[in-house]
Amino acid sequence: MDRRPSPWRSSIMVGSSVGGWLMLLAAIARPEKTAALVGISTAADHIVMSFNSLSLEVRKEFEEKGEWTVPNKHSEDGVLKFSMNFLREAENHCVLQSPIPITCPVRLIHGLKDEDVPWHISMQVAERVLSPDVDVILRRHGQHRMSEKDDIKLMVYTIDDLIDKLTTLV
């Protein structure tokens, strides 16, 4: 079976934050359906690493409660809640400990002012992806949501550029 992507039967996947991590996992699972990736503030392994960086005492406290609550200014109630089952499952899907078997073009956009997911995670993804066609774009004033007009223009331009690239390869 030919597992190389073809533009007429594969997709450019776009994922933001944890969606960027899921995008990577989907591309690993279905390379024949993946023409290119655009990650925005990609949070690969970030939830697991953040939880594991807590002291043993604090982790035990959350494990006893059955969930980990994290302050978050973007949610309605001011916190994100992760069940211990979710965290245990997430550990099975970490990608930054070895080469990432993705060979399609990858574009990673991250804001240097991102207070939720450190920009260096995008750099780690770029270092581990096997594709020879990987670009990291760092926005000096970019926040986690990358919602400013110029951020959105950059995302659209990046996707447009990938479409042009992929259609000229056919």
TrEMBL record:
InterPro entries, alphabetized: AB_hydrolase_fold (IPR029058), ABHD10_acyl-thioesterase (IPR052382)
Record's keyword terms, sorted: Hydrolase, Signal
One of the record's GO cellular component terms: mitochondrion
Keyword Signal set for record: yes
Protein name, entry field: Abhydrolase domain-containing protein 10 mitochondrial
Keyword Disulfide bond annotated: no
Entries under PANTHER family matching the protein: MYCOPHENOLIC ACID ACYL-GLUCURONIDE ESTERASE, MITOCHONDRIAL (PTHR16138), PALMITOYL-PROTEIN THIOESTERASE ABHD10, MITOCHONDRIAL (PTHR16138:SF7)
Highest taxon in the source lineage: Eukaryota
Residues spanning the signal sequence: 1-36
UniProt similarity note: Belongs to the AB hydrolase superfamily.
GO molecular function: hydrolase activity, hydrolyzing O-glycosyl compounds; palmitoyl-(protein) hydrolase activity; serine-type peptidase activity
GO biological process: one example: proteolysis
